[in-house]
Write a structure and sequence with these properties.
Shape: globular
Number of domains: 2
CATH superfamily of the largest domain: MFS general substrate transporter like domains
Helix content: over 70%
Largest sheet: 2 strands, antiparallel
Number of strands: 2
CATH topology of the largest domain: Growth Hormone, Chain: A
Order of helices and strands: HEEHHHHHHHHHHHHHHHHHHH
CATH class of the largest domain: Mainly Alpha
Strand content: under 5%
Radius of gyration: 23 Å
């Protein structure tokens, strides 16, 4: 079984390398503590790339309110406010089309640009499109602005996990990449807040969309100041001295010369192996040593989108209103309730990812999602009255909480750390395309499925997919807690070697 092979290889990597928060003495006489972390510099290495996620979340939260404002004869402030269903769908989905295009483009140009310049490009796209949307004189320009914003989303969601994974200290890498999901949820809440504040203002949709220019400028300035990824610098041929300089900057005031040299030596070894390897084309990613990490990353991105989140949240307002929660301010009340709860549960994942590990959070969280989906299906198919209502409310909250401690943050974390250096940019781009592509397909077919089969049968179908997700995670997803990126790569190399013996 793949899982057994993974555990054996994992043990070999640990026995010959770093474990937990220690590193092996060069003399082989035992482990010694790692140097302390510069908390301020590490925070900056996280917060600026994570603003790309916040701007993604903000668009999700703001668009529902912006559409209400735009379609109202009273608040639109335009002569073209009377949008039909197709035009409304175009406004909402155009950013998703852009995100698909951006993540697809990242497959081709991501490694050439590098993580930092890719985030700079995302910041320019975010900021420029915010101005275009806020000043749009007609529907066509608004849709164009939405598509450009989506391009920014595609580049940002591809580059941010890789930059954080490659630039941050290994022992907090998991916490920081998971914490990026907190910024996404914070962005959603800020979007809801913007909707609440401006939905009754004439031209309020312009303010909602235009406001995202402010964090975009901060993202641009922050990424302009931050160092490049030392791994990307070596891989791109920038030279050891430049990589060492940027690594010292990344480690901040607590940078220890000996520790920097040890870390740089490990990176150099990984880069030499990557450069000695023929970089595969698209088909080559699905062969040899790249197949399993690619399967792990793309399957998590796929299951993240096809295990029911759009469907569950689609019915959230109705479930809460039946229970008397959020009545009177239906959409806003339910959105805020769920948004705050999502934020709290994402915080739980961040606080436990380095102690419990990635794999246990995924297995426990996705299993809980299956239980909640079965409860939702049962409440719709077999229960009535208040028992149905409150069973649905409890199951809904369980589902949202379970998603936020598993698929929400952990999928992006693993995508940020699991791919070999030689193909990290291409593989991460393919995983991002899988995410946005499956999101689009689910959004496309979900209304028809719900109308044809009903809520109960839809939940039951997603529960079956959830069981397949749990089985897949158990079979192929390794534990990467406490390992450097080079150790994670060696984990798959050992496994590949075992299969050729």
């Amino acid at each position: 079984m793949l899982h057994a092979t993974s555990k054996q290889a994992e043990a070999e990597v640990q026995s010959g390398g770093r474990r937990g928060n220690t590193e092996q003495d060069s003399s082989g006489n035992g482990a010694r503590p790692e140097p302390p972390i510069d908390r301020l510099m590490t925070f900056l290495l996280f917060i600026f790339p994570a603003l790309g996620g916040l701007l993604f979340g903000y668009d999700i939260g703001a668009t529902s309110g912006a559409l209400v404002s735009l379609k109202s004869a009273v608040t639109s402030g335009t002569t073209w406010y009377d949008l039909d269903s197709f035009q409304s769908g175009l406004v909402v989905s155009s950013s998703l089309f852009g995100a698909l295009a951006g993540s697809s483009a990242a497959f081709v140009v991501g490694d050439k640009l590098g993580r930092r310049r890719e985030l700079l490009l995302a910041a320019v796209l975010y900021g420029g499109s915010s101005v275009v949307m806020g000043a749009a004189p007609g529907l066509e320009i608004l849709v164009l602005g939405r598509a450009l914003y989506g391009l920014g989303i595609g580049f940002a969601m591809h580059a941010a996990p890789a930059y954080i994974a490659e630039a941050a200290p290994a022992k907090v890498r998991g916490t920081l990449i998971s914490l990026k999901e907190v910024l996404v949820v914070c962005g959603i809440l800020l979007g809801y807040l913007g909707s609440y504040l401006f939905v009754d203002t004439v031209g309020g949709w312009r303010l909602m969309y235009g406001a995202s220019a402010v964090p975009a400028v901060i993202l641009l300035g922050g990424m302009f100041w931050l160092p490049d990824s030392p791994r990307w610098l070596l891989l791109s041929g920038a030279g050891k001295s430049r990589a060492e300089k940027d690594l010292v900057r990344a480690r901040g005031s607590t940078a220890d010369a000996a520790a920097v040299q040890r870390e740089l030596a490990g990176i150099e070894k990984s880069v030499r192996e990557a450069q000695a390897t023929e970089i595969p084309g698209f088909v080559g990613l699905f062969k040899g040593r790249y197949l399993r990490p690619l399967t792990v990353g793309t399957s998590l991105m796929l299951f993240q989108q096809i295990t029911g989140q759009p469907s569950v949240l689609y019915y959230a307002a109705d479930i809460f209103n039946k229970a008397g929660i959020g009545a009177g301010k239906d959409a806003t009340g339910v959105s805020v309730i769920l948004g705050v709860f999502k934020l709290v549960m994402t915080g739980v994942a961040v606080l436990t990812v380095e102690s419990l590990g990635r794999r246990p959070l995924l297995l426990i969280g996705v299993s809980s999602m299956v239980v909640s989906l079965l409860a939702l299906a049962g409440s719709q198919l077999a229960l009535t009255g208040q028992l149905e209502t409150w069973t649905s409310v409890i199951a809904l909250l369980l589902y949202v909480g379970a998603y936020q401690v598993s698929f929400g943050p952990i999928s992006w974390l693993i995508v940020g750390e699991i791919f070999p250096l030689a193909v990290r940019g291409q593989a991460a781009a393919l995983a991002t395309v899988t995410n946005f592509g499956s999101n689009f397909l689910v959004s496309l077919v979900l209304p028809t499925v719900q109308e044809t089969f009903g809520a109960g049968a839809t939940y039951l179908g997603f529960a079956v997919i959830g069981v397949a997700a749990v089985a897949t995670i158990y079979a192929i997803v390794p534990e990467t807690k406490g390992k450097s990126l080079e150790e994670i790569e060696a984990l798959f190399d050992l496994e590949s070697d075992e299969k050729t013996v």
